[in-house]
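> call design_seq(struct)
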């Protein structure tokens, strides 16, 4: 492991590019369906969020991550999964990783005040915000981005519904995207060369949990996908950054919902010796959403592969599998 610069060595993935401003909905649906049955990833352009806002989110993210560690630890992730996550907080690929992910992050969810009825539910509650005198305009920038990202996510969800032969408004139901578990996660990867053969990763191989992920990246490479996790040895492809675009992928819950018609694809982050920042927006179903096989994705010859499950139960399980025990950090600070 070192700090020299290295170049990507893997082949480059070829991904479909979907233009959200395209008036030809059938064309967009066709491109999305092809992407979600092949790689599970695609680029999204003309999504409506200005580059100025995305740049400001990156700038505010860098301000947070350059704070002294003792200041960041005051904002440590709580039991609602809001706040700062230190290096090695996640172990996303325990079979192959020597240690946790070589990244730090920050979770921001939908703001729900403690006195509101939903605040008792997992993944709902108040956010952990940096003090305004330390990071002025930080909260305002993040809330503005979240509001706009939700609209983009809902627009993609309409295309997903159409691609699965559902009504365009299928995912707009109150229990699905009416009160979604929508999470922005700021990520900072260290300027290290991380060798997978030594078990060192910026983020170990994993699939996302939920419905849709929107990812904005800087111009530093590192993201890789594996289209077929069962092929040995696994074949990894670099996903090139694309200025102004979101890299979009679907999560395990949509794969489950669609009875494996759509594909939640393994991906990881490799360190090439440069600092790397990204902004991930995870659009998840609501707390009380019962996820069961979609009517258009099952038949007598293709029965449901998964039992119905409430999304709150599924998400809680997934977080417990990958995140370190918060008590570890609390003991370190005492």
């Amino acid at each position: 492991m070192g700090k020299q610069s290295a170049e990507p060595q893997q082949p480059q993935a070829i991904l479909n590019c979907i233009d959200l401003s395209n008036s030809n909905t059938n064309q967009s649906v066709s491109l999305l369906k092809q992407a979600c049955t092949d790689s599970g990833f695609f680029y999204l352009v003309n999504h409506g969020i200005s580059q100025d806002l995305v740049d400001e989110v990156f700038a505010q993210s860098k301000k947070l991550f350059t704070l002294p560690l003792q200041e960041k630890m005051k904002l440590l992730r709580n039991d609602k999964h809001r706040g700062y996550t230190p290096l090695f907080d996640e172990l996303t690929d325990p079979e192959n990783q020597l240690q946790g992910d070589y990244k730090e992050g920050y979770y921001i969810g939908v703001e729900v005040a403690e006195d509101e009825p939903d605040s008792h539910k997992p993944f709902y509650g108040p956010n952990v915000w940096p003090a305004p005198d330390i990071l002025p305009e930080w909260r305002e920038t993040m809330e503005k981005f979240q509001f706009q990202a939700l609209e983009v996510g809902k627009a993609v969800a309409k295309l997903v519904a159409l691609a699965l032969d559902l009504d365009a408004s299928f995912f707009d139901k109150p229990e699905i995207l009416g009160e979604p578990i929508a999470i922005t996660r700021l990520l900072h990867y260290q300027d290290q060369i991380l060798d997978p053969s030594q078990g060192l990763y910026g983020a170990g191989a994993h699939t996302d949990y939920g419905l849709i992920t929107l990812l904005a990246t800087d111009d530093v490479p590192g993201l890789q996908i594996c289209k077929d996790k069962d092929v040995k040895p696994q074949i990894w492809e670099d996903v090139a950054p694309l200025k102004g675009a979101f890299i979009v992928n679907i999560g395990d819950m949509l794969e489950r919902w669609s009875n494996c018609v759509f594909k939640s694809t393994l991906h990881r982050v490799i360190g090439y010796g440069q600092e790397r920042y990204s902004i991930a927006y995870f659009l998840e179903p609501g707390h009380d959403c019962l996820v069961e096989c979609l009517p258009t994705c099952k038949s007598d010859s293709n029965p449901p592969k998964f039992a119905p499950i409430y999304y709150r139960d599924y998400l809680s399980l997934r977080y417990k599998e990958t995140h370190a025990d918060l008590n570890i950090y609390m003991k370190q600070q005492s």
